[in-house]
């Protein structure tokens, strides 16, 4: 009875490990396909610019936006963002166009001090013309822990990832008012922080994600093979043991 119990526990553990490895492999494949789809899109010419509302209503491709409106209060700081090998934060602020469309604007990258004390943030304000690339939010890896935590400065939130509805609640905006895309502010415009329009800055290329996926699926297969070999050996020992 004890051996049967131990065998059952062993198989349950093996199945759980296999499922975990397969899930990690599947996540890497999803990242690969998402990046391939993004790279397949050409950055739209500025002559094909749309208003923010038009771009949000169009199919979710890269869109160049030119519009007028005002920045809303509140700031989101996306943690663990690197630039030229340095750790830092991406700074986002909500914007509302004159016709009521809303979006988070990527104002650029801010270095994080070694002591991780967040520097003072000066939000943009007032009515302004705006232009930039409407693009997917940055990838932030696996969802572990809370997405948002309040920073010492009032109206500033530190984010580990960017679920739109959580961001809207933190910024006191209606649920559903922020989509899954952000407006990457034109580097030629004044204000904000260090920024560019690279599609996949400081991230792994699709081929690397495929390589990691193969590794995770390979580990899952290895666990399965080891479990089957142990089971086969157990059966051989049972057949070779004389009955009394």
UniProtKB/TrEMBL annotation:
Belongs to the SURF1 family. It is a multi-pass membrane protein. The chain crosses the membrane at residues 210-230. This is SURF1-like protein. InterPro entries: Surf1/Shy1. It comes from Stenotrophomonas rhizophila. It holds the Pfam family SURF1. GO terms for cellular component: plasma membrane. PROSITE patterns: SURF1.
